[in-house]
Every structure is written in C-alpha cells, then in structure tokens.
Amino acid sequence: MEDRSILVRDVDIWNEKGFTRSSILIEKGRIKRIARRINDDAVETINGSGLKALPGLIDVHVHLRDMGLAYKEDFATGTAAAAAGGFTTVLDMPNTIPPTDSASRLIEKQKVASHKTYVNVGFHAAAVSDSHEIDALAAAGAFSLKLYLPKPIAPFDVENDEAIEKLMRAAARVNTPVTVHAEDLSATENTSLRDGFEELAEARSPISETRAVDRLLTIQKKARCKVHYCHLTLRSSLARVSLSGRSTSEVTPHHLLLSKKLLSGLGWKAWMVPPLRSEETRRSLLRSTVTGLASVIASDHAPHTITEKDQSASKSPPGVPGLETTFPLMLTMVNRQQMSLSVLVKLLCQNPARIFGLKSKAQLRKGADGDLVLVDMKKESRIDSSKFFSKAKFSPFDGFKTKGAVHTTVAGGRVVYRDGEIVAREGSGAVLQRGFSG
Ligand SMILES: [Zn+2]
C-alpha cells in the first residue's frame, strides 16, 4: 500500500447524536486523528466546510455480476456506482456465471475483483449441501451462505427441512450467517392468461413470504444459526424476525418507496422479486423501518441490459440497479424529517457492519478504517439513470427529486469519488474476507 494521507478540514462529523465541527486525518488507510484543528502537510486536503461526514456506507446485498455476466455489470462499473452512491463496502451475491459455490470459485472471484474494484468488496457464497465445502468457503472468507428458496444457486434440496437444518448447523459451526431469499412459491398457481407484470406480481403474493419466513425461523431455532432475511416486504415479517434470536432483516428502497400500482406504467423498469406490494403494505413497511424494526437497508442492486429487461413479463429478468439511488433517496427522507439520521446510519452502516463482522468499519474514530462519505445535505437533484456509472442505465426512480447528495467518497483512505467523477485507479479497492479483514 502506498503511503498516502488525506486531511478533511472543518467538516461536521457524525457523533451518533448529531454533528461536531472537526477535522479528520486519514493515514495509510486508517483514521489517525480527529480534532478541531490539525496541521499536517497532508498530501491531499479537502475543505469540508458545509459538508457532513458519515461513516462509509455498507451495502450487504449487491449483484456486481462480472465474469460470465460482465456484459450486465463488472467489478469496475459496479463499484464505481457504489462509490458514487456513498458506499465504501459492498457484499456481492453468488448467483453469477460461474456460481460462487466452492472455495476455489470464491478465490477465483476474489482474484478477478482485486484488479478491478474501486471500493471494498466481500463475497457471499451459495448455500451448498456438502459440509466440507462449507468449511472451505468459510476459510476462504465467504461472508454468508445464500439460500435462494425459489431456485437454488447450487444444487440444493430446498423442499427438505432437514437439508436446510444441516446447512444451518454447518454454517453455525464456522460462525458464518446464512442469508435467505424467503419466498415459498410451491403453492403458487399460475392461472393468469395474461403475461403481464401485474399478474406476475399478484402470483408472488405476500403469503409466499410469510410462509417461507415462518418455515425458516422454525428450522433456524433448532439449528441455532444466524440468519439474515433479505429484502423483506411485510411489516409482519420484520416483526417476526425481530422477535427471534440470531435473526436480522433487510429492506430495499424500492419496497419502501414504490408500490405495485406503478407496474402498469413502468412495467419492466419496476420488475423485481419479491415484487412491489400494495400501497398499504408499502406504507406499513416504511413506518416500521423508520421506527427501527428493520436491521438493514440494502439496494439489491441487480443490473441487466435494457434489451433483456424490455420483454414480456415472464421473460424479463427481475431486478433493478440501486447503488446510485439508495442514499440520495434516503437523504431526501431525512431532509423531509421522515427518517432520522441516526436510524439511517444504523441501517446503512452500523448494523451491516455488526451483522457481517466488519469490525473496524462504520465508525468515525481513531484507528477505524478510512472509509467515509462527505454529504451535501442541501444539494437538490433529480434521479437520472442515463448518468449512472452502472451499466444498467434505467431506474424505477427516474425523475424523482432528491435533496441531499454524495460529495466525496473516501474508501480505504483514498478519495474514490468527488463531485460527479471517479478519481481513483481501477483496482484500488480492497477484497475483504470475513474473519480476516475489515
Ligand atoms: Zn438479490
């Protein structure tokens, strides 16, 4: 690592309750000092006046694609999008080509990523049934084992409770969480004659989520394993998960802010799974999230090409990009006093770090990692997907007005993004392994 230092002068630093005007010196990737006045011949000085400093954001659920799917997104474009969105750490999902279903494939992915990323990247692995492979994946630094109930990523008998219990016991033994896509589609009847997005959303009803969450919570209790429930859409799911030990929940900006009535107009641009819910369900999810019932907000950044997306509902791959819209949308809520900044920091920094064992992240204090985001709370903007760093240049949020924007993103002690531009070198980001780094 080259010797470098950054001094951010006269910035309002988040102190868990509010802001304190101070200066931050970052050296060799870590926060060296925080004090009102720091005089140092730093290589790079940033005038922070008028800006707020928050810990770098952590997105625990992104699909960076790359390798066989690099035409949709690659580690460079995906992590450039992350930096532009204020995220200094992202955890990538394993449903790639090839899938991340063995230690050797995980190591290969880490190697490819190490030459291309702009921010810190860690990897989830697929849930596999071989306990030796689970040990090997944990040893190689997998952040979780992802169980995708509707369509397993690696061969896995998802119908079999005992197979899931065995997976959870093996994961608990190596202290690795299981992440789940909790939708049980076994009883879904596809009776609709129309191949439409609304019909498809109707078929994947809230009951699919309730059924899956209940089932997994019961198995989890026996296995005593940590389980992170991805992209929950119902208040009742958040409540159930919060009452159960070792369980954490995740919500996405699209389920918080959009409802299914938009599907008739937006179609493929608003198609993801789980699908958008009714306005009433959305409102209750949002209310419970802002009052602290959810553990994490994640983007579920899921890029596809427009050609792939713009097809009939049954052919259109689910997923929307989210790395560049999540934070401006949430800052807008803070500005409108619909969410407190302390809840936002919990959901986008502190809880993600705690759940996934990123010990020296999500803190602005001496010795912590030099990951931070400088925010201009007053800057007004409009979401424009044509300007995304992501290859996926579409968004269900296109045209949304926002207030509050990322000014500068510092990851690993390097300025990665400033004022609309990526200023770091490709490959300057770090690859993280659970249990070894972070
Ligand atoms: Zn996902």
Layout of helices and strands, plus pairs?
Elements: E1 5-14, E2 19-27, E3 30-35, E4 44-47, E5 52-55, E6 57-62, H1 75-84, E7 87-92, H2 103-114, E8 120-123, E9 125-126, H3 131-139, E10 145-148, H4 161-173, E11 178-181, H5 197-203, H6 206-223, E12 227-229, H7 235-243, E13 247-251, H8 253-257, H9 263-266, H10 279-290, E14 296-297, H11 306-309, H12 326-335, H13 341-355, E15 372-382, E16 401-411, E17 414-418, E18 421-422
The site of zinc ion has 5 residues, from loops.
Quickly describe the structure:
The chain has 438 residues and is α/β, with parallel strands linked by helices.
Task: Give short descriptive properties of this protein.
single chain, 438 residues, alpha/beta, 9-stranded mixed β-sheet, 13 helices, binds zinc ion
Detailed description of the structure:
- There is one protein chain.
- By secondary structure, this protein is of the alpha/beta class.
- Helix content is 29%, strand content 22%.
- It has helices at residues 75-84, 103-114, 131-139, 161-173, 197-203, 206-223, 235-243, 253-257, 263-266, 279-290, 306-309, 326-335, 341-355; strands at residues 5-14, 19-27, 30-35, 44-47, 52-55, 57-62, 87-92, 120-123, 125-126, 145-148, 178-181, 227-229, 247-251, 296-297, 372-382, 401-411, 414-418, 421-422.
- Strands 1, 2, 3, 4, 5, 15, 16, 17 and 18 form a nine-stranded mixed β-sheet that branches. It has a six-stranded parallel β-sheet with strand order 9-10-11-12-13-14. A three-stranded parallel β-sheet has the order 6-7-8.
- The longest helix is centred in the middle third of the chain and has 18 residues, at 206-223.
- It binds zinc ion.
- Residues 61, 63, 93, 300, 302 line the site of zinc ion (ZN).
